[in-house]
Give the backbone structure.
Amino acid sequence: MTPDRLERLLANLRALPNETEWVEFKENRAEHDDIGQYISALSNSARLKGQPFGYMVWGIHNDTHAVVGTSFSPGSAKQGNEELEHWLVRMLAPRQDIRFHTFTSGGQKVVILEIPAALHTPVRFSGSEFIRVGSLKKLLKDYPEKERELWQILGAAPFEAGIAKADLDADEALLLLEYTKYFELTRQPLPSTKEGILARLKADSLIAESPQGWAITNLGAILFARNLENFRNLARKALRVVQYKGTNRIQSLREHPDLAKGYALVFEAAISYIDNLLPASERISQGLRQVEKPFPELAIRELIANALIHQDFLPTGTGPMVELFDDRIEITNPGHPLVDTLRMMDEPPRSRNEALAALMRRMGMCEERGSGIDKVVSVVESAQLPAPAFILKEQSMLVTLYSRQALKDMSPNDRIRACYQHACLKHLSNDAMTNTSLRERFNISEGNSAQASRIIAETTKAELIKQSDPGNKSRKLMKYVPFWA
């Protein structure tokens, strides 16, 4: 935080009529356990009061708010042999990205501890949760009405509403965001005044206003940041696109060099970059030369959009990634989906990040709600490619698109997965899978219907499909539906 911003923040905090639930003034007192308890109390109280941060300020007179200076030096303070800041973070659960700021104001030393508001669960210090009651620090469990209120607020607070950067003036906020792209993608005219621009960004929850100035929300930063490195909690959430040589990760060939921006700024660039890396082939159809790629662009586009939208933003140090191999594309995003991978084609979609999903749809970056995965499977099937795989890893979701492969080279799992997805598509079209429709899916000749029957038998044994009419004994007329139908 720059000296000017620290001075502005200090002036705003001193201007408060008295200590609030989310601000604590001190002169020199800095017992370490006391600081940890205040972090818990101020973080939880800031969330209760709708503030993005709580603050402890040393060097300020408690009653007059005059700048009197402090002898507290957090940079040199230790708890045992451990640095104070490191010890405090270790004792907090969940861990908080607290920041000490030491500066001089009016010739006096001042220390401000910036404490993010609790996000998904109350913040604990050394196993206990604290809260502010007026200007007093209390155990949260002793105030059940405040505990209930806090949990209600935490349950309704999505990631997008969190604050990525606070205490900004209007010019600083606009400098950090590529706001002209927002107006372009949402098909709105660019307002002629700064106030008009700020009002529109605020209306779409990309920025927020507080007594300390303007703040950029996580939604605003993750979509429109000119550089995600400017937002410490989002820097590792940038989209990555990496191409490898061969079918493993031993040798990387290239990586897109300029994706460390908001998703709305880099989405089309990432799609174009991938398209340019894919080998192209030409064929003549009805006298016209047509260029073919190994993967349908719609499938790539929709799966990348889904990875961005449905990721879990809470895990640190990881973000969405696209990896290109000679025989496949792998798209990974942090977290597990909220819908069973076997039901992604029929269940109503559920997202942790509804505001992000809604705005990306408005900007035309993905399909309408509930149609994306269906279209991915449909275009892959139309191209007679192996069925996409949806795989849960320990802390992530992996989707794989496979390049063209002969049926004889497919594994049993590949055949079963394609048969199941084909049955899902048919059922969602008010139809049912048959031997004939599956032969068309795999381009199996009519004279080799027994091969399709074997695949149907394998998928039935795997309990992924069933007969739509168990009383029908005619193998020729048998129809099949997904297990959930």
In short: The chain has four domains: 3-157, 163-235, 238-404, 406-485. The chain has a mean pLDDT of 91.
